[in-house]
């Protein structure tokens, strides 16, 4: 028999599972009884699923507001998720008792019973599993866990690996426990929720970080030297600083990005002409929903925005903000300062134009635009450092000589005369920074590793992102580039 799981041991501990359906105040100590009780509320609604499900049915769970318009099954999935959510919040309450000095969530109770939209039943994709899809997440997660605990392991071989049987997954793990944790990446299962705001988390550590991020500014002793944000622990600072490092390079240009999602957006907006969002009133099309909504305002006879202090109206959100600042808050403050000649500007694009025309600045390869960073004196200046991972830095440095060699071969085909000088100025190496420095604050201000105190130095190596994830992202983007064909610009 497989050993009892942590979930089973948690189930043995008493919980106060309180029903919040309408005015019901019943409570239970076991999920089985709790779910059966909530099911009785659903049966009392006396609704049947079918083709004539045209009446909206609201969820009566306290502070929820969900309205089902598709089917009875949709409403059941939603209400059963409330049961599961109540249990996670109870576990969150219990684990917080083990950390009395941690503090509490300050977000508030207004979202405590808001659960995610569940669009389909829960379906197990374990190889050769014949379990029908389920509407109750509690039973689904328990079922999937059963697969992890029942998988065969050779007890005689300490190094034997357990294979994940999920569809199209080839992952291997050393033991059932690691496999069970991995399966949560397939099912989306969470293990704890904040009892105050209702936020769900994959493990206790992320839940504790949720609380630590709400510590008062005085308790946030670790500061990022790049963007000046503060954090309560070194680990939170390290996690944050990874967001400043670009690990992913575009297969179509020199652009590098900190995450797979930002790289996908870059490819979508920079290298594709596809515009899937179309206006129903004219031939206009665009690449995202935000631009489409802005365009739809142009078809309205009424102005979209009205100033609350005067009669000014406009269809542009940018225009109404500019009007308010100029007319009702005074002129813009010149916060953008040129780091070369100290001239100030009220807007970033004005400083950008100044840098390009006055000082002949150009966008470096891989940069979509100039970026500005706020300094201690309150002025925004050009951000001069771009952080790349070690691996990406080496790749960029390798590609630069190859590009120069290619340019040299092209110039030789022009057959210049013997006295002609074909050598141009050497291209500067890409501006990269591997090390990120964080500083710990004390009462006297930031400590920057000098005589005033000891700094905290972090080096983020190329091993930070998952190699499997990075390879998958790059292959996907390369396939996308090939499929776009003539659409690549």
TrEMBL record:
This protein's UniProt keywords: DNA-binding, Metal-binding, Nucleus, Repeat, Zinc, Zinc-finger
Location of the protein in the cell: Nucleus
Region described as Disordered: spans on this chain: 398-430
BP-aspect Gene Ontology terms: negative regulation of DNA-templated transcription
Gene Ontology MF terms in the entry: DNA-binding transcription factor activity, RNA polymerase II-specific; RNA polymerase II cis-regulatory region sequence-specific DNA binding; zinc ion binding
An example Gene Ontology CC term for this record: nucleus
Biased composition (Acidic residues): 404-422
Domain of life: Eukaryota
Domain C2H2-type: from-to ranges: 162-191, 222-249, 248-276, 277-304, 305-333, 336-364
Keyword Repeat among record annotations: yes
UniProt protein name: C2H2-type domain-containing protein
Species of provenance: Esox lucius (Northern pike)
Gene: HINFP
């Amino acid at each position: 028999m497989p050993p009892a799981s942590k979930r089973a041991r948690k189930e043995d501990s008493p919980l106060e599972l309180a029903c919040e359906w309408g005015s019901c105040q019943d409570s239970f100590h076991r999920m089985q009884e709790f779910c059966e009780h909530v099911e009785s509320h659903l049966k009392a609604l006396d609704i049947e699923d079918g083709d004539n499900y045209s009446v909206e049915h609201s969820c009566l769970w306290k502070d929820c507001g969900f309205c089902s318009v598709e089917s009875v099954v949709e409403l059941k999935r939603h209400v059963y998720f409330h049961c599961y959510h109540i249990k996670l919040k109870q576990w969150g309450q219990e684990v917080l008792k083990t950390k009395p000095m941690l503090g509490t969530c300050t977000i508030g109770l207004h979202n405590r019973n808001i659960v995610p939209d569940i669009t389909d039943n829960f379906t197990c994709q374990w190889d050769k599993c014949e379990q029908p899809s389920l509407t109750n997440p509690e039973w689904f997660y328990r079922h999937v866990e059963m697969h992890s605990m029942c998988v065969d392991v050779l007890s005689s071989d300490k190094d034997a690996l357990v294979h994940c049987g999920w569809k199209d997954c080839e992952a291997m793990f050393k033991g059932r426990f690691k496999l069970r944790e991995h399966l949560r990446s397939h099912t989306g299962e969470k293990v704890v929720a904040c009892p105050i705001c209702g936020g769900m988390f994959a493990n206790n550590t992320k839940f504790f970080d949720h609380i630590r991020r709400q510590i008062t500014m005085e308790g946030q002793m670790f500061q990022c030297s790049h963007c000046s944000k503060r954090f309560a622990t070194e680990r939170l600072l390290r996690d944050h600083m990874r967001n400043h490092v670009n690990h992913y390079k575009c297969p179509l240009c020199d652009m590098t990005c900190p995450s797979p999602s930002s790289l996908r957006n870059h490819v979508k907006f920079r290298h594709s002409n596809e515009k899937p969002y179309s206006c129903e009133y004219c031939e206009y099309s665009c690449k995202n929903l935000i631009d489409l909504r802005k365009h739809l305002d142009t078809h309205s006879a009424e102005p979209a925005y009205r100033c609350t202090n005067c009669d000014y109206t406009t269809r542009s959100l940018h225009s109404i903000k500019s009007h308010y600042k100029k007319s009702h808050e005074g002129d813009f403050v010149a916060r953008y300062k040129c780091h070369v000649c100290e001239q100030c500007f009220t807007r970033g694009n004005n400083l950008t134009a100044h840098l390009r025309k006055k000082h002949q600045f150009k966008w470096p390869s891989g940069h979509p635009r100039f970026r500005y960073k706020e300094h201690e004196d309150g002025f925004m200046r050009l951000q001069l450092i771009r952080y790349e991972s070690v691996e990406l830095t080496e790749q960029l440095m390798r590609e630069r000589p190859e590009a120069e060699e290619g340019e040299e071969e092209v110039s030789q085909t022009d057959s210049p005369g013997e006295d002609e000088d074909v050598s141009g100025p050497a291209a500067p190496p890409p501006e990269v920074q591997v090390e990120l420095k964080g500083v710990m604050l004390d009462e006297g201000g930031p400590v920057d590793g000098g005589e005033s105190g000891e700094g905290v130095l972090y080096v983020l190596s190329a091993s930070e992102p998952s190699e499997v994830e990075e390879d998958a992202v790059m292959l996907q983007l390369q396939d996308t580039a090939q499929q776009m064909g003539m659409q690549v610009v």
